[in-house]
Amino acid sequence: MTLDKYKDWIYKKTEPIVRFIGDRITPNQISLLSILCAFLAGLLIFISRLNVFFLWISLFFIFLNGFLDIIDGGLARYLHIESRRGDFLDHILDRYSDIFMLSGVFFAGYCSPETLGYLVSELIGISAIVGVLLTSYVATQAEAVGLKRNYGGLLGRSDRIIILSIFIILQALIGEIGGIDMLTFMMIFFAIVCNITAIQRFFYAWKRLN
User: Fold this and answer.
1) 170 in Cβ contact with 162 (< 8 Å)
2) What is the rounded distance in angstroms from the CA atom of residue 44 to the CA atom of residue 101?
3) What pLDDT score does 116 carry?
4) Where does 3-209 sit in CATH, by number?
5) How confident is the model at residue 20 (pLDDT cuts 50, 70, 90)?
6) Which stretch of 23-37, 73-87, 114-128 has the lowest confidence by average pLDDT?
7) Distance CA 55, CA 48 (A)
8) Residues whose CB falls within 8 Å of the CB of residue 205, separated by 6 or more in sequence, listed in order
9) Do 6 and 152 contact (CB within 8 A), yes or no?
């Protein structure tokens, strides 16, 4: 079960903020601000090898990315301007956001290449990024062939944002265990669980198409 299933409940809780925003800014503009936050978060994670303080700053932009990702959909509903174009843009930008943040982790060396070896480190990083992208791709592809969008499985985007935030804090506080960075454990977790989630969603769609 993923937190993505509770989007309607979250939309209700953020409705006062949405009403306050009103028509001052469009949902698409919020989506663009969201991806900017993801880019800055990824950049800060990447340069955090120079100073761990940048990890703490990246938390703010990770949170803001997740928050804005909720607000843009809620605002579109509130203004009655939901559209396929807006939904399409939102999903494309979400995937870029995922890539920016996880690439920051990978290219900063938080997959512990010095301890695990460069080949293993690259396999972990690539598997995690592929798993994250496939999780969302399978869900939207199922919708493209006429099924209801599936937010099921072990891990969704909201869950990943929370887990990333937790491991950023652990990385900043603890650093490493036995020469392995805390963020390495997160990437291994994503590499396994996100790919399992993608497979779960595939078979969910496959059975219904049959």
Assistant:
1) no
2) 9
3) 93
4) 1.20.120.1760
5) confident
6) 73-87
7) 6
8) 138, 141, 142, 145, 147, 150
9) no
Per residue, the 3-state secondary structure of 102-152, as one string, reads HHHHHHCCCCCHHHHCHHHHHHHHHHHHHHHHHHHHHHHHHHHCCCCCCCC
pLDDT at 28 over 70: yes
**pTM score, two decimals?**
0.89
Residue with tokens 């960075």: 181
* Residue in the structure block whose two tokens are 């800014």: 25
Q: What is the DSSP string of the chain?
A: --GGGGHHHHHHHTHHHHHHHTTSS-HHHHHHHHHHHHHHHHHHHHHTTT-THHHHHHHHHHHHHHHHHHHHHHHHHHTT---HHHHHHHHHHHHHHHHHHHHHHHHTTTT-HHHH-HHHHHHHHHHHHHHHHHHHHHHHHHHHTTSPP---SS--HHHHHHHHHHHHHHHHHT-EETTEEHHHHHHHHHHHHHHHHHHHHHHHHHHHH-
Q: Indicate the domain borders of the chain.
A: 3-209
Indicate the residue type of 135: T
The reported pLDDT for the residue numbered 72 is 83
